[in-house]
Amino acid sequence: MGKTLTYKILENHLIAGEMIPGSEITIKIDQTLTQDSTGTMVYLQLEAMDAEKIKTELSVAYIDHNTLQTGFENADDHAFIKSVAQRHGVVFSKPGNGICHQLHLENYGIPGKTLLGSDSHTPTGGGLGMIAIGAGGLDVAVAMAKGTYSLNVPKVIGVKLTGKLPMWSSAKDVILHVLKELTVKGGVGNVVEYFGEGVKTLSVTDRATITNMGAELGATTSVFPSDENTKEYLTLQGRCGDYLPLAADEDAVYDKILEVDLSAIAPLAAMPHSPDNVAAVSEIGEIKVDQVAIGSCTNSSYTDLMKVAAILKGKKVHPDVSLVISPGSSRILAKMAENGALADLIMAGARVIECACGPCIGMGQSPKSGAVSLRTFNRNFKGRSGTNDAEVYLVSPETAAISAITGVLTDGRKTDVVIPEIELVEMQPLDSYTVSPCGHCKANTEVEMGPNIKPFPRNTELPETVSVEITLKAGDNITTDDIMPSDSRLLPYRSNVPHLSNYCFEKIDAEFAKRCQAVPACAIAGGDNYGQGSSREHAALAPLHLGVKFVVAKSFARIHRSNLINSGILPLVFADASDYDDITLGDTLVIENAPSQVKANEIIVKNVNTGKEYKTLPNLSDLETEMILAGGKINYLKKA
Questions:
Q1: Would you call 489 a catalytic residue per the annotation?
Q2: Element (H, E) at 138
Q3: Residue 64 designated active-site
Q4: Does residue 331 carry a catalytic annotation?
Q5: What pLDDT, in 10s, does the model give residues 550-601?
Q6: pTM over cut 0.70
Q7: Which long-range contacts does 236-239 make (Cβ < 8 Å, 24+ apart)?
Q8: Annotated catalytic, 65?
């Protein structure tokens, strides 16, 4: 029986455990990446572990999220990250260099390597044939300090690609189609692996778009083979020596196979307010558009933006539309300035902003009240744009560009515009934005810490009895944006959890934080897929600061579940999902003999108000059990 590419790479990095689906393994991590929204906490945790020097082959600290400097807070965070990076041997990417995932693809990604990143879209690296996994910041800090990461062996969903994309259909439409088929929780516990004849018709940046949005499936990661297209891409980046051919065995066995005929893919859009709420652009119709935003780690590559420039060349953005473009990297922006494409964008009426995440995380460019915004981004959760009543649609760069001209959502196939083939070009090295740690070490580099940076909260050992009040009853598909909002107002406080916690769940229930502060301990009841979305561990740290001891839900998203455990917060799953209906806001729930029950991996939660008992399953591995008992990962590591 042949092996999947996923299992080949994991086996090549296996340190402990067996490759049995669902069992826990520990793998060697070759590379890590952080970004500044999560990075401050990562480096506070790295310092707390008293690590001397990183154990990975390469670690990079990117500044791409909090680049709007309206006060000292963001700049102070950047200085802190730079100082700790120099202390431990981490490469530092300055503001303006670009978006972490696009930059890592260009400069550092290597086929067959493992990458762990403190950002949920780290699987972008799968476009190069990497096992690239998004994780909470503490997991990344531990990977830097120890060079390892533990996870459950995933199942592998094979996506067989045939045919070739027609004009006006793109890689974005492929992943939107997959999301429509599998849904935002269809990838949980799985790696999505692409194979088939259609793979060779997709460029590396096409593949990276698809693996990037694999995060919205809830998948552990997504991966493509490494082939001649990979070799060409790496060569044009000046890195031909990093090429390694990789593929699944011809007789590889997948746990599930989804077949996709690329030639049948039409221009698609994810409608408000979920990435899997997908329909054909032609079916949605010509709705009036107020804003178009092109960029993000999903669609800001050279080929994406050159297609946009070609569509806009000689034309004008509709008078009622605001078009904003954020290039993925400084190298891409420099190349477009050199070849004239940047002038085409500007002459058409586009607003070209800094090479950063920007509008994707609500950091500027929020649309007007009630606006329809077409975005080439990866998430359209309600309020994520910074405007709570905006209607955000996720589309391809091609659909975004033609719609910016017409002023309505437009299926490009119904126009006479022809998109030329974009020729891949050699990208010149650009090191102006990169700071090497060479010559620096912990002994001779001081930590630079501004007044807004506060210590991260720490839990205590699990007591014998856990008694809490339910301070929130949440529904299905609660996102980390719901738990800990991310926008230009709050992002500067990502290094200040005490302040940030006051806004926890504010979009769901503005009184949540006050209720938590009024009781000794609290808990949350949640529905299906609790904690989907971003990897931000602030969605666990803020509840921890507010006294949340456990979350009991119908199911959890992978990264958030790990972040809860890392913080010493119990993630409990109802054995009988109907028990969720019995819980009411304000109920007192009690867990007796908590340590013994945790070790048994079956926990009875008593509702003092109703007298009922709920059987819950934490589904903890041996390592996770020890972390919960110790009160979190840092406490466990200190004891180990």
A1: no
A2: helix 137-146
A3: yes
A4: no
A5: 999 999 999 999 999 999 999 999 999 999 999 999 999 999 999 999 999 9
A6: yes
A7: 236/424, 236/425, 236/426, 236/427, 237/106, 237/107, 237/427, 238/426, 238/427, 238/429, 239/107
A8: yes
